[in-house]
Amino acid sequence: MDYSEDYDGYDDVYGHSVDDDYYISPSNRQFIYNRENSRDQPKIGEFIRTEQDIQEEDESETASDLSDLDKARLESCIEQIKATLGPLCIPRNELVNIIISNNYNIERATNAVLDDSKNLQSEPKEKVPSIKVVASGGKTTTNVTKGFDLSQNKDSIKLNTTPRSQSPASGRGTPIISQSEGTSEETKIIKSKENKIDVETQYKKERGDSKEHLYMVVIGHVDAGKSTLMGHLLYDLGQVNQKTMHKYEQESRKVGKQSFMYAWVLDETGEERNRGITMDVGRSQFETKSKHVTLLDAPGHKDFIPNMISGAGQADVALLVVDATRGEFETGFDFGGQTREHALLVRSLGVTQLAVAINKLDTVSWSKERFDDISQKLKVFLKQAGFREGDVTFVPCSGLTGQNLVDKPTENELLTWYNGPCLLEVIDNFRTPERPVSKPFRLSINDIFKGTGSGFCVSGRVETGSLNVGERVMVCPSRELSMVKSLYIEDLSQTVVFAGDQATVTLSGIEMQNVSIGNVLCDPQNPVQVSAKFQARIVVFNLTIPITKGFSVILHHQSLVEPAVVSKLISQLNRSTGEVVKKHPRFLSNNTSAIVEIQVSRPIALELYSDCKELGRFMLRVGGVTIAAGLITKIIL
Amino acid sequence: MKLIDKSIDKEGQGYVTLVPEEPEDMWHAYNLISEGDYVRSSTVRKVQSESSTGSSTSNRVRTMLTIAVETIDFDTQACMLRLKGKNVEENQYVKMGAYHTLDLEMNRKFRLTKHEWDSVSLERVEMACDPTKSADLAAVIMQDGLAQICLITSSMTIVRAKIEASIPRKRKNFIQQHEKALAKFYDNIIQGILRHIDFDIVKCVIIASPGFVRDQFYEYMFQMAVKTDNKTLLENKSKFMLIHSSTGFKHSLKEILQDPAVVNKISDTKAASEVKALEVFYTTLQCEPDKAFYGKKHVEKANEAQAIETLLISDNLFRCKDVNLRKEYVKLVDSVRENGGDVKIFSSLHISGEQLEQLTGIAAILRFPMPELDEDDESETED
Ligand SMILES: Nc1nc2c(ncn2[C@@H]2O[C@H](COP(=O)(O)OP(=O)(O)OP(=O)(O)O)[C@@H](O)[C@H]2O)c(=O)[nH]1
Ligand SMILES: [Mg+2]
């Protein structure tokens, strides 16, 4: 088998320069945004830091390089951090570097400082509850933070986009990078500043004491055993009672599908059970030591990738399940197999932490060689797909026998070579990302259904901001207004929901048929943009035929699936530098990067990537294959 | 379409008399008639007549009308063709120079006079009158929550019905809503099939979808047919064919038309051959980019070098208002043929024709590479 060709492809897309810390080419980095901003930022700053690690006497130089504005920002950052953390044992020089490398973002810098000092005390990194640090610093630092948050945003635009995509980044209602806009921007800052104090205090109050909530999508090739693994885990954790399990056992035996009894916990429709195949994302939840986990069991079948994408779009982290059976791992891992496509998709959707369950090891008598062989192959591939080595954990298990799921293994063959964590511990070790609670409210609708009372419900992930019962929301693209009657998270009534939550919202004052999947609920004061046409920067994956002007594609934007046309090829870019290689190319072939214009068949709710990562990214698919990932750089109204 | 009469002189001036026999013929007529042509057909007019006593009565009369065409409107859904223009032959009811509309009617002959019949128009007449009529094809292309019922004839793909439903996703312990919505969605599709597909004409009904939707729907449909004793469905069960498509959107029709099982079944291959030709173009562009070009400028240059092996051109370009522009395209077609090249005129109503239209409407596969074309300008795609 020849993998090298595929690797070339992935190489070009994501792993341009493979290097532990800096594993993505600078121009493609933006495609791989990190949901854990607090961890992502320091990486960007590593350019600076590594240089300055050499010498400590560089202090004056660092500061003198800065513009007056930056100096002022720096000073106020130091002030704020000192105010937050009290007297510091860190030399000023180092502090300056940390702040600069965090783009003057106080929260992040504070985290970095804390991380550093924690590391000094050699505490396990995973235990740092980044979210709480933010909340605790929040109250005192808000004023400045918000202001700089915005400018930090601007900086990241400069960092992340090419000159070409930058110039048009001034759609209507978008903060424009120019001094003359100062006044209007300031008012904006002040407005959201007040909002931010409220929201963060509220967030801390509401969520401060409870376990962190983590959303995990389970992915992998068809029949890898995802549903069985999760069903068994849920059963072992007592989430499924014995009576129900007994019923599943009996009924599945009746239809000759007894091996699917655990899968039935998540595969609930008649069609899924009869065929033994997951078709739409199954949901459930369970608790680990430190977390409340919502699990999204994605379908592995190629034809259900649209459903898998909508599930993965709502997840913080992913569990990749591979079948260790001889021949089966290879099928899923070959080109065209979903082990690859799924991993690439979740990475493009912003997931950075991955656990890999090497499943069905019972079929190869818990062979260490097989485990090592598979881990090795996956490691190489995942690294090229843009995952950090430290963020990927491998765990041996069997979903059917229940080995190494919630308890230490008992199987002797496994015990001889494995003494690492069980699956539940691996899940517990995931880090919860920072939630952008103080940005304007956005929720992209993933499901619409009738509730028990009056009105109807929509559900989806709160991408940014927060929402209270009784607030008014706008449904976009139709721009109809509606009222929030009640809020739920997993059937529990709430008074407020925050970024990161998968919420169910009961709406009133709007007809159910006027709302569809892929619509966005937003703050009427600060609505999302609506347009059928935009410019984007895309990275083209493997293609069988090239993309030309007028190419028909299917656009996947959050849960929205809509036909679209690549209406213009504006320029082809150098993959690593982002420079324009050719204007108006005739076509785009494999593994290229380009600026294109996309015309959607009807208006959609969207955002610039620089304003909102979650609503500024999309995938293009053709004939059931993902051909490109893109970032919206300009909205054409 | 039936050809009744044809009289065209050496200069290409003259007329043809045609009788449209089926909806598709209206589409052919639409492509034949240009502004400035004369169309003569009978039509019903309301006539006011004043009696000697001064009271006026109005009654309907059928009269022959000849107009110099100024505007042409085609309604795809109804397959209606409406012409507007000045009357050029006075008769007892209609004055010279008065504006009139003329709807072409099924089974009623019309005479079309042109100053110049070019090769493309003559070919269209021939194609329209080809008696070896093809089997009509119907397709239901679907995914959860979206279905389109399409009719595919030799030169048209018409979406007869689009059924959209919001299907709640499966939710824990809440599965009935999902299944009920699905059943209702399927019921609507069945109704659509019964309303829009004429099983006397249609020889084959394709049900296409990703996943198992098509199987699920097919099973449901015939369960319901047995339950309600629906003879139409039961008697035509053998006409149904289940085919995979990657989505339920219309443009996945091209996957269906490439499926060997479908290609075998349909005797008429115009739609399928257009899909194939475009596919060849794209493959060439991928493998030998210097042998595939699109856009008028590039294609004309390639033609000057006698390099065109296959010309793909949308019929849309021949319907343009600018007479000279149309002439240029006709000349291009003639010239490619003279040089031994193949010309495929795509129907803009087919899925691949739509795609070609987006791709400037004109593309060519060359006999030999012409890298110089690529270099000479970068403004090709600007418009
Ligand atoms: N021997 C063995 N069989 C397993 C194991 N886990 C799952 N299976 C079997 O693999 C088959 C597929 O299991 P599922 O859980 O439905 O797989 P899936 O990944 O959820 O499949 P899709 O959701 O359709 O992609 C079933 O017959 C399971 O019994 C395992 O650990 N060992
Ligand atoms: Mg499954």
TrEMBL record, chain A:
Residues 154-187 are annotated as: Disordered. Residues 154-169 have a biased composition (Polar residues). GO terms for molecular function: GTP binding; GTPase activity; translation elongation factor activity. One of its GO terms (biological process) is translation. Pfam families: GTP-eEF1A_C (PF22594), GTP_EFTU (PF00009), GTP_EFTU_D2 (PF03144), HBS1_N (PF08938). It catalyses: GTP + H2O = GDP + phosphate + H(+). InterPro entries: EFTu-like_2, GTP-eEF1A_C, HBS1-like_N, HBS1-like_N_sf, P-loop_NTPase, T_Tr_GTP-bd_dom, TRAFAC_GTPase_members, Transl_B-barrel_sf. Its main location: cytoplasm. Residues 211-437 form the Tr-type G domain. GO terms for cellular component: cytoplasm. It is found in: Cytoplasm. CDD domains: EF1_alpha (cd01883), HBS1-like_II (cd16267), HBS1_C_III (cd04093). It comes from the Eukaryota. Signal peptide: none annotated. Keywords: Cytoplasm, Elongation factor, GTP-binding, Hydrolase, Nucleotide-binding, Phosphoprotein, Protein biosynthesis, Translation regulation. Belongs to the TRAFAC class translation factor GTPase superfamily. Classic translation factor GTPase family. EF-Tu/EF-1A subfamily. This is Elongation factor 1-alpha 2-like Protein. It comes from Tribolium castaneum (Red flour beetle).
From TrEMBL, chain B:
It is found in: Cytoplasm. Pfam families: eRF1_2 (PF03464), eRF1_3 (PF03465), Pelota_N (PF26356). Its main location: cytoplasm. GO terms for biological process: nonfunctional rRNA decay; nuclear-transcribed mRNA catabolic process, no-go decay; nuclear-transcribed mRNA catabolic process, non-stop decay; ribosome disassembly; RNA surveillance. The keyword Metal-binding applies. Residues 1-130 form the eRF1/Pelota-like N-terminal domain. Keywords: Cytoplasm, Metal-binding. It comes from the Eukaryota. GO terms for molecular function: metal ion binding. GO terms for cellular component: cytoplasm. The keyword Cytoplasm applies. Component of the Pelota-HBS1L complex, a complex that recognizes stalled ribosomes and triggers the No-Go Decay (NGD) pathway. In the Pelota-HBS1L complex, pelo recognizes ribosomes stalled at the 3' end of an mRNA and engages stalled ribosomes by destabilizing mRNA in the mRNA channel. Belongs to the eukaryotic release factor 1 family. Pelota subfamily. This is Protein pelota homolog. It comes from Tribolium castaneum (Red flour beetle). The lineage of its organism: Eukaryota, Metazoa, Ecdysozoa, Arthropoda, Hexapoda.
